[in-house]
Amino acid sequence: MLIGEIMLEGLFVLFAYLAGSVSSAIIVCRMMGLPDPREQGSGNPGATNVMRIGGKKAAGITLLGDMLKGLLPVYLAKILGMPVDALALIGLAAFLGHLYPVFFGFKGGKGVATSVGVLLGFAWLLGFAIIATWLLIYKISKISSLSALIASSLSSVYAWYIVESPGLVGSCVLMTVLLLWRHKSNIQRLLAGEES
Question: Per the domain annotation, does 28 fall within a domain?
């Protein structure tokens, strides 16, 4: 029984990574006849860049797709009663799939929307806390990357109080570190006062 549970959890981690590897930005742009987001704008296959090259509708669909691929694997694992540590690994796998997608040469997006989906899967309150923080900072600053960086940086603090699970908090910390790393160019522009 224990071996069966471990195998199921391993399959879910693989499923989460593969789900995360499906690039919503690239698929939406192809379906809507838009340029490849990896070759236009910032070159990042994410909702913000899709907004630049295709408008709000394309960006909204991309955002939803990126969130769902983080949410669904974690939520399905939860329904099946998998332990919290497995949920942490499954969420991290979906996030890594978005950053390093096997289907697109391991060159993916920055992970903001997918991480929000994962956090919603961990706990609805945690996900909504991140979304509320992003909206508040964006309302004040009007800078998407700054909002994402601050919201992500606070995710581990929120998780500590909301989910009270070392495994889930650890997953949040790792996602934050990777997200900050992926935003290093944005951070440099923010520090130089050049971020749009």
Answer: yes
